[in-house]
Amino acid sequence: MNRWLVNREQPSPNWDERALPVSMVVLHYTGMQTGQEALERLCDAEAKVSAHYIIDEDGTVTALVPEDKRAWHAGRSYWRGITDINSASVGIELVNPGHEWGYRAFPEAQMDALLPLLADIVERHDIDPANVVGHSDIAPARKEDPGELFDWPRLAKLRLALPTPKAKMNLLYDNPGAFYLALERFGYDIADGHAVVRAFERRWRPNKIEGEIDGQLGGILFELLLERDMSDRGMLDDND
Fold it and tell me: In 3-state terms, what secondary structure has residue 192?
């Protein structure tokens, strides 16, 4: 961690040892009424939850758990074959009341603090942009954060996350099962079909979240898979 990116440290007792190398960043919102309430919970041994960092709405960055330790932020989750997300990820909490307490946009000061911190983490751990994800991506049946108001395009412009592709065509899969299998191939847990479609929309089409498969979603998913496959092919060619 670069010390200049962190304003203060408040160690949380809620951590253990990693079993996997860091290959992901998971972004959350706190979903509590105040930032102080969230900070106290993340540092409460009885709560058994934590994150590596929490960023307040005024841009204050607090380090809670060292990055070489396993913070307890992801819960039961899955992404691209990994089930122990806590071991494989750095968790960042963004103070926001969330959908329960008055969900709102993330302030400029908060985003301005997040971006250099995230860039530093991604560079140090050589994290693929496809593995910078939201809590709802890895736990679609349980979570909605950081939600549809989070500025993923801003991260994508800095190559800190995947950009949302423009669907070049509407693509209707032969049946819902085919769409779910494509989602699984991209990385999602598809155990709850309706929930995973909503999570996909929340991330890739935030202006329309219905949980129903349509041609536009099919087109977006097709482009995401195509881009990923081309990227993987390029990596193989470089190693030939």
Answer: coil
Q: Are 49 and 42 in contact, with CB atoms under 8 Å apart?
A: yes
Q: What is the β-pairing status of strands 24-29 and 15-17? A: unpaired
Q: Average pLDDT of each block of 10 consecutive residues along the chain (240 residues)?
A: 86 98 98 98 98 98 98 98 98 98 98 98 96 98 98 97 89 92 97 97 96 95 85 46
| Residues recognised as catalytic | 93
- From the list 149, 10, 134, the residue with the least C-alpha distance to 74 is 134
User: pTM of the predicted model, to two decimals?
Assistant: 0.94
Range of the domain at 206: 164-240
Backbone angles phi, psi at 39, to 5 degrees: -60, -45
Same domain membership, residue 136 and residue 93: yes
